[in-house]
């Protein structure tokens, strides 16, 4: 049967206490200890989720019941992961804010993996195949022009020049999430926020989205951003002003997820997540002392 948040917190904390305390004492390296904490709790979470998937009572509730349970397990695992990581390697503000943002993406993607509305996860296209098809189409178009053969050869040579430049960059068309709904392919990226180090990533996102845009009018690129728009810098504005990206920030992001999946993730968070109350008193005291509690926001 479905368990409460407190029951799951007890299960995960007991596991961490029983399996991690002795293990993390074996290493002097803080990063190795943190890796052990993360790996063990991720594996334990996967085991619990597999058990829930096989639970007859939960399965009878359909994707809605299953998603509710998986979201709770995932959230609780995050709470305990943060607590025990801090035990072996106390967070500074950069590591902590980054980690809270990193956990957000896979959490949001659960609504797409167990959707209420009809949608299908798909694989991204292979860039080599896309490039080959574009080159073939261009070559066939040039061959059909009423031009002499020498001019056609020269046109093809000029067309090949930018492709050689693109090839040197090793472009990958894979983003964080790809799904099909109503015969439209949605290619999605999740970002916690845009800061001063995002120039390279912004340029890549513009290039990748422009390639998708050239493939078909049924290819759409979506950007989900955790932070409110006014908390991000000009790199986000650059993407939003481009003709390639549909950008959703903060609550608009959750509303878009609801429209796609049929699940009110914002409502679920409001009803089930209370970071400052759910974390341990020891961890809460540390975060307050270091002025880090403010970063526990989704």
In short:
This protein is α/β, with parallel strands linked by helices. Helices cover 64% and strands 9% of the residues. The protein has 3 domains: 5-104 and 274-295, no CATH class; 127-167; 173-261.
Task: Considering the chains and any ligands shown, give keywords for the structure.
298 residues; alpha/beta; 3 domains; 13 helices; 9% strand
What does this structure look like?
With 298 residues, this protein is α/β, with parallel strands linked by helices. It folds into three domains: 5-104 and 274-295, no CATH class; 127-167; 173-261. It is built from 13 helices and five strands. It has helices at residues 5-24, 30-54, 56-59, 62-88, 93-113, 127-143, 149-167, 199-215, 234-241, 250-261, 265-272, 275-278, 281-289, and strands at residues 120-121, 177-181, 184-191, 219-225, 245-249. A five-stranded mixed sheet has the order 1-2-3-4-5, sandwiched between helices. Strand 4, helix 9 and strand 5 (245-249) form a beta-alpha-beta unit. Helix 1 (5-24) packs parallel to helix 4 (62-88) and helix 4 packs antiparallel against helix 5 (93-113). The protein is elongated, with a radius of gyration of 23 Å. The chain starts with a helix and ends in a 9-residue tail after the last helix.
